[in-house]
Specification:
By secondary structure, the chain is an alpha+beta fold. It has one domain: 60s Ribosomal Protein L30, Chain: A (2-Layer Sandwich). 38% of the residues lie in helices and 11% in strands. β5, α7 and β6 form a beta-alpha-beta unit. The two termini are 31 Å apart. About 22% of the residues have low confidence.
Length: 283
């Protein structure tokens, strides 16, 4: 007689869940993803071609070779002593395409720009009721810190902070609005590096007529975008307002991609009781 199968019993497990409405990132159809990627790569290819042609590769591997490379002889060194001005003129690369000043490349660069835009949208101080605290007239409710690039110079960051304190205005388009932010990840909430972007994008474009659109492309798009720009990897990309040649791309994205919604921000500011939200699971 065959043994009878033991039926495994399950029991429900309950846990509390966040009562606020989660951030919603609009889904993009495969057809629109392919169209956006094709237009974007065509727009970025001149930047990659300029970088490939006129930017010298990193010399990091040269140190590893050490003394394996033979030194240039004195005769050869003497042959290089010619008109230095002519050599400098020949080595001077042509200027990069104008689009390079209107494109933000890299996750840190995009995050820093969005942070500056968000800082303009939300006041840094808010008056308090005098009955609550007679010794303090203001409450700091938001302190947005600057993000430094991975290869940034600390001294440069200090100089930028001092110039802001002295009232020196940045260039006109330094913190221009960003109509489009593109990331090669389909689900930002599942990526530790990209999880902050939807909320930051929503806050940075609260009072704008055309909110910033977040375009989430599949992970496979990173290889194609990085190849178009001639860089090893790409974590995020943003296009500034009035970028030359980017008008059709921005218009297409605005027509087919909805804006990011963060209902929990308004719910949290209202300071209302949201009740208890539970989630049921089985073990």
């Amino acid at each position: 007689m065959p043994p009878t199968a033991v039926k495994k019993t399950t029991k429900p497990i309950y846990r509390t869940e966040n009562p606020f409405t989660k951030t919603s990132v609009p889904a993009i159809g495969q057809k629109h993803q392919d169209a956006i990627l094709d237009i974007l790569c065509g727009l970025l290819e001149p930047l990659g071609q300029h970088r490939q042609t006129h930017h010298n590769p990193s010399k990091g591997k040269k140190r590893k070779l050490g003394g394996k490379q033979s030194s240039v002889s004195a005769v050869n060194r003497g042959s290089f002593k010619m008109d230095t001005s002519a050599a400098v003129d020949d080595a001077t690369p042509p200027p990069a395409p104008q689009l390079s000043n209107h494109v933000l490349i890299g996750l840190n660069t995009v995050t820093r720009h969005l942070t500056a835009l968000a800082q303009k949208q939300i006041p840094s101080q808010m008056p308090l009721d005098k009955s609550q605290d007679d010794h303090r007239s203001d409450l700091q409710i938001l302190n947005v810190t600057r993000h430094a690039e991975n290869d940034g110079d600390p001294e440069k960051n200090h100089v930028e902070m001092r110039s802001d304190e002295e009232g020196a205005a940045p260039p006109k388009d330094h913190y221009a609005p960003l109509p489009v932010v593109i990331i090669p990840h389909p689900t930002p909430s599942a990526s530790l590096a990209h999880a902050h972007l939807p909320t930051l994008i929503y806050i940075s474009s609260l009072d704008t007529a055309q909110p910033t659109r977040l375009v989430c492309l599949p992970s496979s798009a990173e290889t194609r975008l990085a190849s178009a720009l001639h860089i090893p990897r790409l974590g995020a990309l943003a296009i500034k307002k009035d970028a030359p040649g980017a008008g059709p791309l921005i218009q297409y994205i605005r027509e087919h991609v909805e804006r990011v919604e963060c209902p929990w921000i308004g719910e949290g500011l209202r300071a209302e009781w949201q009740g208890v939200k539970t989630e049921r699971q089985t073990s």
